[in-house]
Write a structure and sequence with these properties.
It contains seven helices and eight strands. The protein has 244 residues and is an alpha/beta fold. The strands form two sheets. The chain has a four-stranded mixed sheet, sandwiched between helices. It has a four-stranded antiparallel sheet with strand order 6-5-8-7, with helices on one face.
Length: 244
């Protein structure tokens, strides 16, 4: 099972929290579609900001959006002008009150979404895929990961027949639920077609009980990353977001 299922969804409720946090009732479908539109809009709008995750919480009158990014300065802008402008754009687009929180990812080399998107952009920029992947693997292991696995699929080097290549270093135990496995699936558009890219990163094992409150879970994830991926950060490092 661990080899087939998405490692993040497989750990939901154990060591990973949800990215959409609300009770929809009869409006479930509308809220779900709106969440998808928000994420699509923000990912396109903040394409250069290295956005990893977008967590959405809803109350009766307020939508709280938490943007997890490796480059918060691009999102916030000078004096907070860009984030205020973004807030107004979302408010006008979806006709709801919006609050935006920004979380900085201290070690982007340990984030699968950022690593995968960087590989994709390099491949689209005509850098050899082997070189791009090997550099990403080396940087991730140097940042403190216990293991990384990268798979690329498609017409590699313009070959007539599509094939798959895998690059692995360290350990990525997919069947161990306490293993903090981050996962990304993305694609690179080249002249010969789409290349599929998948990234698995093992950041250590989590032995403590995890509070899955959205912002708190992100704090915990950042704390594990900052401690070199050993997954045993002390309880004193846990703190809640005061802006909630």
């Amino acid at each position: 099972m661990g080899q087939k299922v998405n490692p993040i969804s497989n750990r939901l409720g154990i060591i990973r929290g949800w990215e959409s946090n609300w009770f929809g009732g009869k409006d479930f479908g509308d809220n779900l579609l709106e969440d998808k539109k928000i994420r699509t809009y923000l990912n396109k709008r903040l394409e250069k900001a290295s956005v990893s995750r977008i967590v959405i919480e809803r109350t009766l009158k307020l939508v709280t959006i938490t943007i997890c990014t490796a480059r918060p300065g691009i999102v916030i802008g000078k004096g907070g002008q860009d984030v205020d402008k973004l807030k107004e754009e979302l408010k006008n687009l979806f006709k709801k009150e919006v609050q935006i929180n920004i979380f900085e990812i201290k070690k982007p080399e340990l984030d699968a979404n950022i690593v995968g998107n960087n590989i994709a952009r390099q491949v689209e920029g005509k850098i050899a895929y082997r070189r791009a992947i090997k550099m990403a693997v080396a940087n991730t292991m140097r940042a403190g990961a216990e293991g990384i696995k990268v798979q690329i699929t498609g017409r590699l080097n313009g070959a007539e027949m599509a094939r798959k290549e895998m690059f692995k270093e360290g350990r990525t135990p997919l069947h161990t639920f306490r293993a903090d496995i981050d996962y990304c699936q993305t694609e690179a558009l080249t002249k010969v077609g789409l290349l599929g890219i998948k990234v698995w990163i093992c950041r250590g094992e989590v032995y403590d009980k995890v509070d899955l409150t959205p912002n708190f879970a992100q704090e915990k994830s950042n704390s594990r990353s900052n401690n070199g991926g050993n997954g045993r950060s002390g309880r004193g490092n846990r703190r809640r977001n005061n802006n909630r």
